Amino acid sequence: MADPVVKRETLRISLGTIVLSAVMQLVFVLIKRWDMTVVCGNLLGAFTAILNFYLMCLTVQRCVQLPADKAALRIRASQSGRLFMMAAFLGMAALLPKVFNIFAAAIPLIFPTLTIMAYKLFFAKKQIAEAEKSGIKPEYRPYGDDESEEQE
Amino acid sequence: MELAMGIILGCCALGAGIAMIAGIGPGIGEGQAVAKACEAIGRQPEAKSEVTSTMIMGCAIAETTGIYALVIAILLIFVAPGIFAGVLKSVIGG
Asked: Do A76 and B27 touch (CB under 8 A)?
């Protein structure tokens, strides 16, 4: 059973992937390459990206309860399996060019990373600013812009 | 023409294989990160939620390199030979 942390992160990544997929569709429309294969490829790619992220979350959730050496081995095995799964999905998209656009299937695989980067860029600084406004000194600073460190 | 096509296919397959070497790194890196996270949770069990959340984000970022390599390898195997064959035909035809 998935932890609340896993559910929350997967939901956040899913939302980011959906938004970025819409942006990608818009770009395909603008460059006049849009057709149904782009939609099918995008659906396949987005599904693969979210499934990959969810499986990784489940593996991490299980691994943090194991001894360190067993956890390292398990996450390596999981990473190999997930890479193989993504290769199978992308191979399917490449072998069926009349159904899936290969570029529309491949691009969404990096959407989870882009979502995390966008979240760090827009929301982490906002949270720190709110915390500082309320008088709480946050322990975590994503960009290392601590004034006290600069003074030292 | 056949020799040139053979060289193109061989180079594409070789390039895809070399690209997938990058798939080794994320596995090793994630393994080390998770091992350290296990030790951290062992020391501070009350921080499990924060450590897990940070681990998930870190693993997702670390895995991007492997995904780039996979995408390049798939494109080299399935897409690039067709493009290069088209270029070759246009050059020989011209």
From this structure: yes
Domain residue limits at A119: 4-123
Residue A70 belongs to some domain of the structure: yes
Rounded CA separation A52/A56 (Å): 6
CB atoms within 10 A of CB B85: 15
Q: Is A60 inside any structural domain?
A: yes
ipTM of the complex as predicted: 0.86
pLDDT digits (tens, 9 = 90+) for A38-96: 999 999 999 999 999 999 999 998 888 888 888 889 999 999 999 999 999 999 999 99
User: Residue A122: its pLDDT value, please?
Assistant: 80
In this structure, are residues A86 and B71 in contact, taking their beta carbons and an 8 Å threshold? no
Query: Domain for residue A147, yes or no?
Result: no
Residue type, A138: P
The count of other CB atoms within 10 Å of the CB of residue A9 is: 24
> Which residues 97-116 of A have a C-beta within 8 angstroms of B?
102, 106, 109-110, 112-113, 116
Q: Do A90 and B71 touch (CB under 8 A)?
A: yes
> Chain B: nearest CA to A142, how far in angstroms?
12
Q: For the domain with range B14-93, which CATH number is right: 3.40.50.2300, 1.20.20.10, 3.30.710.10, 1.10.760.10?
A: 1.20.20.10
CB contact under 8 A, A102 and B34: no
Provide the domain count of chain A.
1
pLDDT tens column, B10-58: 999 999 999 999 988 998 998 898 888 888 888 888 888 888 888 888 8
pTM, rounded to two decimals: 0.84
* Residue among B32, B59, B64 minimizing CB distance to A60: B59
